[in-house]
Amino acid sequence: QVQLVESGGGLVQAGGSLRLSCAASGRTFSSGTMAWFRQAPGKEREFVSAINWSSRSSGSTYYADSVKGRFTISRDNAKKTVYLQMNSLKPEDTAVYYCAASTLYYTRSYYYSSTPSYDSWGQGTQVTVSS
């Protein structure tokens, strides 16, 4: 089992930036996928971004169309931490952001963008963007 702890959320004005962190602890694995999802009040949890890695590949990153060009996901293997750099934030980015992890190496959108694909989740961190 992997434990995930998110941090970095907060209140920011439109156009501002935040960096979310997701620190993993517990069992480690040589390949897998980690992702960020978000959930706004009254809405379903939606995919934001994912990153995969393996011992044979440097990995790939994936983004929802709504954040492409504004958000950047990255991973620090030594710290077992995934980051989400969020720039040019908009009020519609307001949500609770969740980190998720899977031991499987996903490359297809059907898998990396779906919540059932992940078996470990963080508690979430609130991001509020004011207009």
Salient structural properties:
131 residues; mainly beta; 4-stranded antiparallel β-sheet; globular
Could you characterize the architecture of this molecule?
This protein is mainly beta and 131 residues long. The protein contains 1 helix and 11 strands, in the order E-E-E-E-E-E-E-E-E-H-E-E. The protein has one helix at 109-112; strands at residues 2-7, 10-13, 18-26, 32-39, 46-53, 61-63, 71-76, 81-86, 95-102, 120-121, 125-130. Strands 2, 4, 5, 6, 9, 10 and 11 form a 7-stranded mixed sheet that branches. A 4-stranded antiparallel sheet has the order 1-3-8-7, with no helix packed on it. The longest helix has 4 residues, at 109-112. It starts with a strand and ends with a strand. The mean pLDDT is 95.
Q: What's this entry about, in short?
A:
It is built from one helix and eleven strands; from the N terminus they run E-E-E-E-E-E-E-E-E-H-E-E.
Helix-strand category? mainly beta
Helix content: under 10%
Rounded to the nearest angstrom, the distance between the terminal CA atoms is 40 Å
List the secondary-structure elements in sequence, H or E. Answer: EEEEEEEEEHEE
Reported for the largest beta sheet, the result is: 7 strands, mixed
Rg calculated over all Cα atoms: 14 Å
Mean pLDDT: 95
- Shape type: globular
Strand content: over 45%
Low-confidence stretches: none
Put simply, the count of helices is 1
Count of DSSP strands: 11
